[in-house]
Amino acid sequence: MSFTPATNLSAASSEALTVAYVSTLPPRQCGLATFCTALEDAVSRAARSYSVPVPVLESNLAPDGPSIVRDDVDSYIKAAQQLNQLPVDIVCIQHEFGIFGGASGSLLGRFLSTLDKPVISILHTILPDPSEDQRRAMDAVIAGSAKLVTMSQKGRRFLKEVYGVPEEKIVLIEHGFYRRTATDPEAQKKQVGLGGKKVLLTFGLVSAGKGIETAISALPDIVKLHPDLVYVIAGATHPAVLRDEGERYRDSLVQLAEELGVVEHLHFVNRFMEDGELLDWLSLADVYVTPYPNLRQITSGTLSFAFGNGVPVVSTPYWHAEELLADGRGCLVPPHDPEAMASAITGLLSDDEKRLAMADRARAYADAFTWEATGHRYAELMQKVSSDWRSRRKLHFVDFSRNAPAASIELPFAHLSRLNDGVGIAQHAVHKIPDRRHGYCTDDCARMLMVVAPATGRSETPPAAARSAYTCAAFLEHAWNEEEVRFRNFMSYDRNWLDQGGSDDSNGRALWALGLTSARAGDEGLRAWAENAYLRARPLRENLQSPRSLAFAVLAEHERRRVYGPDGDDPFLRLGKHLMHQRGEIAARQPDWVWFETALSYDNARLPQGLLLAAEVMKREDWMEEGLKTLRWLCELQWKGDFFNFIGTRNFGQDYTAFHKIDEQPIEAAALVDAAVAAYRFSRDESWADIAEQAYAWFLGQNRLRLPLADMSDGSCLDGLHAERGNQNCGAESTLALHQASLSIRDLRRLTLNEQSDHLEQVAGGQTI
């Protein structure tokens, strides 16, 4: 495989296709390498294509071009970054738990989360009861793939029932095989010294667990009726077994045959065979046997080869064999049962009519998945996935320029009204229907109050919005726990509090809502209540520990200062000192990690935003510089050239990594809008205004999936972006994030319009700018 045009024998499409194949590859001797080589050849014959090999290696003897070293984390990231720079249309991954590094191959997730290309993953193993590590690794593959290919109906069922994969994401394409040309079996037998013999065949890499000892144990009963039989075991010992154990297993098979008195009926071909030589052996086989004891095998390439070439098969009923050999297309026998195996094999060898009829049924059934037919199916799938991906990326977006009128982003209140009742705002929704099972929380009522309080007291404000401000104010009033000096957070739908004191972050957000409402509410009564409630709750600031909660406290106090003037510097000083101390420690340990914490999580941009506000109040240029620096780093980390790809929930708690960018949440976009607007106000650097606009455009379709999350007809917002689709639920947090970002963008546009007007007036007046 190389980065060269492939021979095109019957092009399925006039459009060239460049495919990157991620797999073990020759010269490595394993089933995945053989499969991937055959697949690349089949696709090249079905479509005008180029191939980019991405070999998965055991050691750091990397060839030129992208490659992955099994246990080297950086190689996964580097390979994805290299593919992002190449004109690759589709990435095709051969997935097997054992070939990738990390717990159950989890390092593949690093590759997928860094990659900015469409992915088709071919699943060679699908477990119905995965371990915790296997489930996590599999979930990363599912999330990072546009399509998942399984080779059996049982695999399709497992993906849907065990892993929750939607039907439209699953594609069933049976294991391909090469078909031999018609030959004279007897002549073939003579060429290898088996003339006049009946041949029982097993081929593939030899290792314990293949059940070959069961087939050998069946030989005494078989040779009683067919003394001319030879059992051919064709294939090298598995390289990993050979490295760790040598030929111990093969030697044990010879010893068993000697003990049973059938060693002269045993014939080993101890070498790795390419497809052409395998076809030669299949052409002379009378019966093929797969005696695997593990019945949970969902794919077998050797079975597909033998079956497709019309060799009668006797097999244990592992999953793949059950499907292929149904309806008289083969014989199934219990595992570890030499007598049943001997009976099935002698029954076929003694009845040529039955054996040939079985071969014909198998050959006819397999016509649909020769490598020629399978190559066309894969080529068509690759073309479609690539085309869909390009179409999404070519969508045209509304021009959200800073010169747009501020009124252009006024949002309807319909969905927020739908979520709000007489108690508060429902946390969650099923699509757009409030989900009462999860009740209410202080976090969301605080967010709601921040969105609607500034609009109260105005004639143009919808009555429902004004009512919701008072509803959420009442919720916060009730949430205050005087004994604990904290706000409760969670309330069930039947109005019972589920805690006595919420998290630091929910308490910090409640303070922020009160501070903003006391400074901005249009209704005087609401402002007076908020100021009183803020002063009552202010002592809880002393117990806040998390940096985000401190940032929320800074945002609260900064709002009040605009109206009430200075009232102590404590939150600004605490946050600034804490973040700068953390930066210093992390910079000493990990210089490239330009952040305040070892891991990125949620509401990330609130930290540099809080530091900028603290720098302004405390008149600290070094804090201001660090706030802008870290915010710029966060933006660059998530910028994909023409859209933001925000850190997803899977990245939370992953130290010094920023690779999991699926399951993106709207609060990240809203936080970045606010932080970028703050950076613009302090620096007057127009790039920050551009960043704010780009972050806001994420809601409107300028994102990884080119999918609008905002519904401008009712003001609702999807709960986030999964790997290949939006989360169709429209809960409170996401919808309020949209509204909060919209208000900030409106203010930004008004600010920039005013500045442009001032500039024009100065120019018209002949003043020097």
Q: Would you tell me the structural class of the helices and strands?
A: alpha/beta
Strand tally, please? 23
Report the uncertain regions. 1-14, 394-408
CATH fold-level label of one domain? Rossmann fold
Gyration radius (Cα, Å) is 33 Å
The CATH class of one domain is Alpha Beta
Question: Can you give a write-up of this model?
Answer:
Residues 70-176 form the Glycosyltransferase subfamily 4-like N-terminal domain. InterPro entries: 6-hairpin_glycosidase_sf (IPR008928), Glyco_trans_1 (IPR001296), Glyco_trans_4-like_N (IPR028098). GO terms for molecular function: glycosyltransferase activity. Residues 187-363 form the Glycosyl transferase family domain. This is Glycosyltransferase family 4 protein. There is one protein chain. With 769 residues, the chain is of the alpha/beta class. Among the domains are: 17-176 and 374-390, 3-Layer(aba) Sandwich (Rossmann fold); 185-365, Rossmann fold (3-Layer(aba) Sandwich), CATH 3.40.50.2000. It is 48% helix and 11% strand. The chain contains 27 helices and 23 strands. A 7-stranded parallel beta sheet has the order 3-2-1-4-5-6-7, sandwiched between helices. Helix 12 links the parallel strand 12 (313-315) and strand 13. Helix 7 packs across helix 13 (338-349) and helix 17 (442-452) runs parallel beside helix 19 (504-520).
